[in-house]
Amino acid sequence: MIVPVMAVVYFAITILVIVMNIGSIPGVFARIFQEAFGFRQVAAGGFGAVLMNGVKRGLFSNEAGSGSAPCAAAAAECDQPVKAGLVQALGVFIDTIVICSCTAMIMLLAPEEKVAGLSGMDLLQTAMEHHLGRFGVVFIAATLFLFSFSTFLGILFYARSNVAYLFGDNWISQTAYKIIALFMLFIGGLAAYTFVWDLGDVGIGLMTIFNIIILYPQGEKALKELKKYEESKKHRKERPEK
């Protein structure tokens, strides 16, 4: 329940920030389109860089196509696999379009002179401090901790399930997995964030390539199941009228 609650609270705080800076909204959207599609950006290859970086960060955000999210979906009790798939599709929208857009609005609504030269969490913390003072800094720190902690638990669950499938659910395989996970966590906490991002990009990219290769032959079957589900849902709606 941590993630849904924090997502709702984060969205509410963003709405508050937007209301407080409602007059700056047109300028923010103008800046977004100018920076992404302006002549200077196109000539310098900026659009391609923005697109590539968006795809990479999007995969981290929503895991779409990488094959990791189904580990969580498969653990849910559901009478129709199509329902699980639709919920997962909604999760992609919420993760990337809603939550990531909230972060972008918080940062873009801050005065440019206050956030110049900053990036990453320093940029977000400074922007939130401008909007909500000390409360904003504490809120972002707490939100980041809870999101990171819940993500860590989720990834550990994914990995444990896959290790059990590949090597058996025994003491040796699970102990070895836990030691490796702790070692990687330690390295990730000490390494430069650019190295961690690059390593993550390679891992997620390989996962996505392999997963899409496997999924492609199943696409026709998935579409058939979706059509069956839509037809059965349509018949259930029409039945009371007869």
UniProtKB/TrEMBL annotation:
<feature type="transmembrane region" description="Helical">
    <location>
        <begin position="179"/>
        <end position="196"/>
    </location>
</feature>
<feature type="transmembrane region" description="Helical">
    <location>
        <begin position="6"/>
        <end position="30"/>
    </location>
</feature>
<keyword id="KW-0812">Transmembrane</keyword>
<keyword id="KW-0472">Membrane</keyword>
<dbReference type="InterPro" id="IPR001463">
    <property type="entry name" value="Na/Ala_symport"/>
</dbReference>
<dbReference type="Pfam" id="PF01235">
    <property type="entry name" value="Na_Ala_symp"/>
</dbReference>
<dbReference type="GO" id="GO:0005283">
    <property type="term" value="F:amino acid:sodium symporter activity"/>
</dbReference>
<keyword id="KW-1133">Transmembrane helix</keyword>
<feature type="transmembrane region" description="Helical">
    <location>
        <begin position="131"/>
        <end position="158"/>
    </location>
</feature>
<keyword id="KW-0813">Transport</keyword>
<feature type="transmembrane region" description="Helical">
    <location>
        <begin position="202"/>
        <end position="219"/>
    </location>
</feature>
<keyword id="KW-1003">Cell membrane</keyword>
<dbReference type="GO" id="GO:0005886">
    <property type="term" value="C:plasma membrane"/>
</dbReference>
<protein>
    <submittedName>
        <fullName>Sodium:alanine symporter family protein</fullName>
    </submittedName>
</protein>
<feature type="transmembrane region" description="Helical">
    <location>
        <begin position="90"/>
        <end position="111"/>
    </location>
</feature>
<comment type="similarity">
    <text>Belongs to the alanine or glycine:cation symporter (AGCS) (TC 2.A.25) family.</text>
</comment>
